[in-house]
Each structure stands twice: as C-alpha cells, then as structure tokens.
UniProtKB/TrEMBL annotation:
One of its GO terms (molecular function) is 2 iron, 2 sulfur cluster binding. GO terms for cellular component: cytoplasm. Residues 299-356 form the Rieske domain. The keyword Zinc-finger does not apply. Keywords: 2Fe-2S, Iron, Iron-sulfur, Metal-binding. This is Rieske domain-containing protein. It comes from Mycolicibacterium diernhoferi. Residues 341-367 are annotated as: Disordered. Pfam families: DAO, Rieske. PANTHER family: RIESKE 2FE-2S IRON-SULFUR PROTEIN YHFW-RELATED, SARCOSINE DEHYDROGENASE-RELATED. The keyword Isomerase does not apply.
Length: 367
C-alpha cells in the first residue's frame, strides 16, 4: 500500500492510497465453476425456488415454493445457511443490525483510451470507476448514487447524474447499460457469519458484506464451514454473528432504528396529502391509513397494489430508477404488480387491480 500524488485520469485527482496487485474478475464464470464443483460432489442447485419459512427441529424443515409458484414443498436438512442478502427469518433481529443500501452503475462506450485501473473516491458524492471487457469492446463502468433503500425521492436522478459525470470527463461517451445493486451495512462495520441465535447450531446466517461480497462472501463461507464441520480459524472471530465487538455499533444501531420508526410513522400518514394519478414510469401511494393504495404506471400498464410491506408493516415508496416498490424500513423490494423481488419479506404485496392506462401510451420512462 502506498500514497500516490498523481494518476493518469481525466477527472480531478488530488492524491490517493494505491493498493498494487489487485485482481479483477467476472463473477459469473466463477459461480459457474462453483456450481460445477458442487454438482460433481453430489450437490444440486434449485433455481427460482423461494424459501418461505424454516422450522426448527431435527431435522430442520424448510417450506419452499416451486419456481413456477404452482405448489410448495418441504425440504429437510441438518443445517441451513441463510445467505439471502438479509436473513429472511426475523429471529436474531438481523434486520435491525444492518442497513440496506441501493446504488447504481452505468456502462459506457468511450472513444479513445479507457481508464483501466479501479478507482474509488473517498469524498461525496461517491464515484467508483473500472472497466469491463466485452465481445463488443471495452466498457467504462461508473458507479455511485447510493441511498438507503426506499428513501430516495427521485432515484432516477442518480443514474442521470452518473451519466452526466461520465460524459463530462470522457467526452463522446455513450451509455449502453445501467443497473442497480443492493448491499447491507452492519452496525459495527464487520460482516456477520455465524448462528442466527446464540447456542443455535443448525441455522446460520451470512450478511452485512457492505459491497465487498466477492471477498467477504468467501470469508463467510470459510468461517461457517469451519463452525459446521468442526474446524478452527482464529480470524473468523471477527465475523462472529454474536460478539462483544457489536457494542461499538450501539450508537449507529440506535440512530438506524430511530430512523426506521420515523419512516414507519411517516409512511402511514404522508399519503393523506397526496392526490392524483402517477405518470408513466412513476408510482404513488395515496389514501387514508385505513384505505391506502399504491398505484404505478409502467409500459402503459396501470397497476394497483397494497402498499403495506408484509415483513413488518412499513409503507413502500416508489423507485423511479428501477420502477419498483421499496420498503424504507428494512429494504424489501417489489415489482409494480407486487411480486417479491428482495427480502426480508417472504411474500409479495397484495394486488388490487391492473389495467392499461389511457394516458400513458408513450412507452417506458425508465433510463
């Protein structure tokens, strides 16, 4: 690790910490290799299936929905590892120990030389820079625009700002793709990998990777496999799901959960002052607390669902960058029709109505 004063980049640079010999890899082939080895060793992978509940016993009993949602089945296991971003089981209260964050990336075709090293800014607004090889040539990847899930008034502005920044510093850049990701920040800055409750040795969690999943995910897998199989790795204590080191995060936890309480109250009251119908690519929660409704229009289709998150009763808000409903309490996400996209909720929003909008014939407003 060394301090450098200059860098060959087109954006302002005032010095930074350089970490040499870093690797860049495509995670999809890596995952393909993991799956191939798992199957070679007798394991299997079920895609599209969703675990709804885990019943403690000997053995554990998992209720799993089939990929086509046509039926549920019961799966038994000696051990269960919940590596679902945030644990779908509320026991252990991990939803109160991590904060969900959404951030955005854009890929651009850049004329001339491309910045090949990886850069991460330390100031605000955060920017991350890297490149990606593709069959159609290299792409510049610019990331940033992060916010707590469900608490951005206009998330689409974050994507527009990233594109504007990139074109400002890389003249002639043309956007080809954009996407978003969700990460969870732990209250004491360290991930959790261990039993879901102290003394519970059959249900395990891995969460709080805070955007460092490629490294922390592998470290969590090693820590958990060591605990399950009886191994010992001294460094794994830093990842303990229940440890005195969490005391260092009490202030952060208190602030985080006070904000959650505020968002809960605001969500039920604020819709009283809202009126009208959403425009194309938008969503709106309206009505009194006893008759709330969430309306959205995407690709000319007007959908109405209940805005009440089935996790702990928060009221969802609309993300106009992803065209999705987001719970501002603990980060559950839902499609416009209420389909569950991301937990900790284990089921979707209750649908109310769907019809083709008469005022939105111009197509999607998504960037």
């Amino acid at each position: 690790m060394e301090w450098v004063h200059d860098a060959d980049v087109p954006f302002p640079f005032h010095g930074g910490v350089r970490l040499p010999d870093q690797a860049q890899l495509d995670p999809v082939p890596l995952l393909d290799s993991f799956v191939a080895e798992l199957e070679h060793r007798g394991g299997s992978v079920a895609q599209g299936a969703r675990v709804r509940s885990v019943s403690i016993g000997s053995p554990l009993r998992l209720t799993v929905d089939a990929a086509d949602r046509s039926a549920s089945r019961t799966v038994t296991a000696e051990h269960c590892v919940l590596a679902t971003g945030i644990p779908i089981l509320d026991r252990g209260g991990f939803f109160a120990k991590v904060s969900p964050h959404r951030s955005y990336c854009v890929a651009l075709k850049v004329p001339g030389d491309i910045t090949r090293a990886m850069y991460l800014s330390s100031d605000s607004p955060t920017r991350s820079i890297r490149y990606a090889p593709t069959p159609d040539g290299e792409r510049l990847i610019v990331g940033g625009g992060g916010h707590t899930v469900g608490r951005a008034d206009h998330a689409a502005d974050a994507v527009s700002e990233l594109v504007h920044w990139a074109k400002q510093h890389y003249p002639g850049a043309v956007q080809t793709h954009n996407w978003s990701a969700q990460d969870y920040s732990p209250i004491d800055e360290l991930p959790y990998a261990g039993p879901i409750l102290p003394g519970t040795r059959h249900v395990w969690v891995a969460t709080g990777f805070d955007k460092w999943g490629l490294t922390n995910g592998i470290a969590a897998a090693l820590a958990l496999s060591g605990q399950i199989l009886g191994g010992h790795m001294s460094w794994a204590r830093a990842f303990a799901a229940w440890s005195p080191h969490e005391l260092s995060g009490l202030t952060t936890a208190l602030q985080h959960n006070l904000e959650v309480g505020y968002q809960m109250a605001k969500g039920w009251v604020a819709p009283l002052a809202r009126h009208g119908d959403p425009a194309e690519g938008q969503g709106l929660v309206t009505g009194p607390p006893w008759n709330l409704r969430a309306d959205s229009v995407v690709d000319g289709v007007h959908r109405t669902v209940s805005p009440v998150c089935p996790h702990l009763g928060g009221i969802v808000n609309w993300n106009d960058a992803d065209c999705a409903w987001e719970c501002p309490l603990h980060g559950s996400r839902f499609a416009p029709d209420g389909t569950l996209l991301e937990g900790p909720a284990t089921r979707g929003l209750t649908p109310a109505d769907t019809h083709v909008s008469h005022h939105a014939r111009g197509g999607s407003a998504r960037p």
